[in-house]
Amino acid sequence: MGLYSTVMESIEQYTGLAPAAFFTIAALMVVVYKTVCSMFLGPEDFKKPVREPVQLGDVTEQELRAYNGSDPNKPLLMAIKSQIYDVSSSRMFYGPGCPYAMFAGRDASRALALLSFNPRDITGNLDGLGESELEILQDWEDKFMDKYAKVGQLVPEKPTNNYEQTNQ
């Protein structure tokens, strides 16, 4: 009984409130806190469900452009050294209107190697790059391999068969 009466006397001495009033106010504060917190959404409420990466296999550069983020129902893809990665989980970087959106739906190998945002450099052509630039590109590729799922690879444009077109 000694501890109980000591706590009750301390509450009255430090707050100037009767213990019943103190605990009533404390309970009301908890209720108000819970009510106000429930009025707002937390960051986890804004996360979209993560979907499994779709394996595309062999894709041409033209086909890859359809995955640039303009269609929200398609995954967001980009390629490095002809390897295609699903970067949908980083839509805040590669999605439309975001800092690296120009790389989405493209092979950005040259631009990444040169650390360039020049549209002419957004290509898979590595001709003329120096050793240090190729090392930078390898660092980018390593980061992508660790962070994103590989979903396909770029292949050359499919040749049109002129023989079939002329003999129909």
Question: Nutshell version of this structure?
Answer:
The chain has about 170 residues and is α+β, with helices and mostly antiparallel strands.
CATH class of the largest domain: Alpha Beta
Largest sheet: 4 strands, mixed
Helix content: 40-55%
In the CATH hierarchy, the third-tier topology of the largest domain is known as Flavocytochrome B2, Chain A, domain 1
Order of helices and strands: HHEHEEHHHEH
Question: What is the molecular shape?
Answer: elongated
CATH superfamily of the largest domain: Cytochrome b5-like heme/steroid binding domain
Radius of gyration: 29 Å
| Strand residues, percent | 5-15%
How many individual domains? 2
- Class by alpha and beta content: alpha+beta
Question: Average pLDDT across residues?
Answer: 87
Low-confidence stretches: none
Molecular structure report:
With 168 residues, the protein is an alpha+beta fold. It has two domains: 3-40, no CATH class; 57-154, Flavocytochrome B2, Chain A, domain 1 (Roll). 42% of the residues lie in helices and 10% in strands. The protein contains seven helices and four strands. Strands 1-4-3-2 form a four-stranded mixed sheet. A hairpin with a 2-residue loop joins strand 2 and strand 3 (83-86). GO terms for molecular function: metal ion binding; steroid binding. Belongs to the cytochrome b5 family. MAPR subfamily. Residues 59-155 form the Cytochrome b5 heme-binding domain.
